[in-house]
Design a protein that fits this description.
Number of strands: 11
Number of domains: 2
Distance between the termini: 96 Å
Helix content: 40-55%
Strand order of the largest sheet: 4-3-11-7-8-9-10
Length: 380
């Protein structure tokens, strides 16, 4: 039995525990996912009197609280073991991890509607016409969706009635109808998947596997050659390795679950050993890609650096420009007309959940700036 003094010391220790945990230096593995590090703000009289110092300091202590990372992992682990689904990462059938936004898109919950779709497609059509008139090729790439490729993996609690009113089906139809060139990796991988020796997707990731991204990168080079009528450099394979460990984006969904346990890879993955040899007699275009995170896997193959001329760029969500010679700029600082018209090829590359914002306004920005520049020229 505890003595009165012992109970008193225990109560005092419990009262001091929050303060001890707040300042106790605990070294733990960083959590995965998109989060902004909270920095410690310096004290000033201005921030003290307007109340912002207190709020920022509270946020700092909460972010750096001892055992916070361990507590997050423990909570996630309990949810996983009890079968509770996390909205940002759904555990599908066969331990196939998928993003909830892909499931919503598959069932058309984010469909932009026919009026908005018509406006967007018309903008891209005019965008294409101006680019083509100035000697720049334009096309659209649709990256595959793991959920659309394997809807049977969707958990029963998220299953709904399928519909044709999805951004994927309607944009695909509209682009083809208006004559906007489109490279549809969704249909292509669905057609060839059963013939491939390795999976297009790891069960642990939401992005295509390194193997599939390499195949897609080579196909992209072929399509650029087809649409420009010029011979392009292609990726050469020096053999394929079988790998039993998912890396990078092949396990991005598992990483953001932040579990203590692990989920095994349910099928070996492939790794193509590539040779990117540039033939100077082939066409090396200057390109501009506007798209989402799927294009990063294309960049990782090396073609952006090896097969495209310096000055080629990737506009990540049309927000940040990553040039293949190492420069990074906000797109707001770039002359959109000059940038687009100075390229041999401009293309969009988006996965299904991001089709609702396809282009992220690039076509309208270009046409507004182009019309303004044309008006100024006529006045002068």
């Amino acid at each position: 039995m505890f003595s009165i003094k012992g109970l008193l010391f225990l109560l005092l220790a419990l009262l001091w525990l929050p303060l001890i945990v707040r300042y106790l230096p605990v070294h733990d593995t960083e959590l995965h996912g998109v989060s902004e590090k909270v920095v410690k703000h310096d004290f000033t009289l201005a921030t003290w009197f307007d109340g912002s110092f207190q709020k920022k300091r509270d946020s700092y202590f909460a972010y750096n609280l001892g055992f916070r990372k361990a507590a997050v992992r423990l909570a996630n682990e309990l949810d996983y073991q009890l079968g509770e689904q996390r909205k940002y990462c759904v555990v599908g059938k066969g331990y196939n991890l998928m993003g909830m936004e892909y499931i919503d898109s598959y069932y058309g919950k984010d469909f932009v509607g026919y009026d908005s779709l018509k406006v967007l497609v018309n903008n891209f059509l005019h965008f294409k016409e101006i680019l083509n008139k100035n000697g720049t090729a334009f096309f659209v790439v649709i990256a595959p969706s793991k959920t659309r490729l394997h809807p049977e993996q969707i958990p029963d609690e998220f299953r709904e009635r399928e519909t044709a009113n999805t951004n994927y089906t309607q944009f695909l139809h509209a682009f083809r109808k208006t004559g906007i060139p489109i490279l549809d990796f969704q249909t292509w991988f669905a057609t060839i998947e059963n013939k491939l020796p390795y999976p297009v997707y790891s069960n642990l990731g939401v992005h295509w596997s390194n193997y599939a991204a390499t195949i897609a990168a080579d196909s992209l080079m072929g399509y650029i050659g087809q649409i420009t009528g010029k011979q392009t450099n292609r990726i050469k394979s020096q053999g394929i390795e079988t790998v039993t460990q998912a890396e990078g984006t092949e396990r991005d969904m598992l990483d953001i679950l932040n579990l203590y346990s692990s989920i095994p890879l349910n099928r070996p993955l492939g790794k193509i050993n590539t040779m990117l040899q540039t033939d100077t007699t082939n066409f090396s275009p200057t390109i501009l890609a506007i798209g989402d995170s799927y294009y990063w896997n294309i960049i990782y193959t090396g073609i952006q650096e090896k097969f495209f001329k310096p000055g080629s760029a990737y506009y990540y969500y049309n927000s940040t420009a990553y040039y293949n010679h190492g420069v990074i700029l906000p797109t707001s600082q770039i002359n959109v007309v000059k940038s687009c018209l100075s390229k041999d090829v401009v293309f969009l590359i988006y996965s299904e959940p991001n089709l609702k914002n396809i282009g992220n306004g690039i076509a309208k920005q270009f046409m507004d700036a182009y019309a303004k520049a044309d008006t100024l020229l006529r006045k002068n």
